[in-house]
Amino acid sequence: MRKLQAQGVHHITLTGADRQTSIDFWEGVLGMPFVFDQPNLDDPDEGHLYFDPGDGRLITIFTNENRKPVHSRTPMDPGCVHHIAFNVSKATWMQAVERLDARGIRHSGPKDRGFMDSIYFKDPLGLLIELACYKFEPPLGCSHADVMIEAHRQRVAAGDDHIMEVHLADAIELLVRRRQQTLSGDRDPKDPY
């Protein structure tokens, strides 16, 4: 038996309402360029809109002019999507409250998640959206996941409940130590003062 090895998210497709609601939200609120448009090849009564969330991957929306936006929360039954999180810069995250408030969009307010900062709000169809901003940059040649797994190990070893900045900093130091060579014979911390 062999795995079917995934190598990243190709795209996420959501069931939308009418075409303009999708364009107004995904491009007009979240700034995702509208990059492709065709019929839903499995249902000719629907449109299929494609948006670039910023990393070249795709968020796609099935639209139907007979479906209207509903503002209640999407189902949270087993198997349903709880929320979708999008990466934003620290500068954008710092403006999120002001910009959501200016549009009258209700939100959670800032949330400190230890390794990232978040804010949550619903799209026009009730899907919970998270804007997330990492509190760290991974060392050159490493991914955010590399830092996260090492920070998790640091957290568990320390007996802490959740990842905090100290675990991230220690994980980054360890990853740099592993990846980057040095001419020094001793890489332990020193006090030159």
TrEMBL record:
- Any coiled-coil regions, as ranges: none
Per its record, what are the GO molecular function terms? Answer: dioxygenase activity
Q: Which InterPro entries match?
A: Extradiol_RC_dioxygenase, Glyas_Bleomycin-R_OHBP_Dase, Glyas_Fos-R_dOase_dom, VOC_core
Identify the keywords attached in UniProt to this record, alphabetized: Dioxygenase, Oxidoreductase
Q: Name one Pfam family in it.
A: Glyoxalase
Annotated VOC domain residues: 8-134
Name-wise, this protein is Catechol 2,3-dioxygenase
Q: Which species is this UniProt entry from? A: Tranquillimonas rosea
